[in-house]
Specification:
There is one protein chain. The chain is an alpha+beta fold. 29% of the residues lie in helices and 25% in strands. The chain is built from 4 helices and 5 strands; from the N terminus they run βαβββαβαα. The strands form 2 sheets. It has a 3-stranded antiparallel sheet, with helices on one face. A two-stranded parallel ribbon has the order 1-2. The protein is elongated.
Length: 84
C-alpha cells in the first residue's frame, strides 16, 4: 500500500525522513487583499508581514488541494513539482 506523510511548510524532517520518499512537504498558500503568496523557499516573510500589517483585512490560508497530493507519484518531489 502506498502512503504519504504530508506536512506543511512549518514541519521539519529528520535526516532519515528526508531520505524516505513517503515524507513530503507541501506549501501553505496565503492571501492578503487578493495577493497570493506561497510559503516555500521563495517566501519573503518580511514583505508578507508588512503587507499583513498594512491591510485592514485578515490574511487567509489554505493547503494544496488533496487531489494533487493523492495523485502525485510516490517520490521525493513536492506535490507542486510532481504534478507539472
Amino acid at each position: 500500500m502506498d502512503y504519504r506523510i504530508v506536512v506543511d511548510s512549518c514541519g521539519e524532517f529528520t535526516e532519515e525522513m528526508k531520505r524516505d520518499p513517503h515524507f513530503i512537504h507541501t506549501a501553505l498558500h496565503l492571501e492578503i487583499d487578493g495577493e497570493q503568496f506561497t510559503d516555500d523557499e521563495s517566501f519573503d516573510r518580511q514583505d508578507f508581514l508588512r503587507k499583513m500589517k498594512a491591510s485592514p483585512n485578515c490574511p487567509k490560508s489554505s493547503c494544496v488541494p488533496r487531489r494533487r497530493i493523492i495523485g502525485a507519484p510516490l517520490r521525493r518531489e513536492s506535490p507542486e513539482t510532481a504534478t507539472r
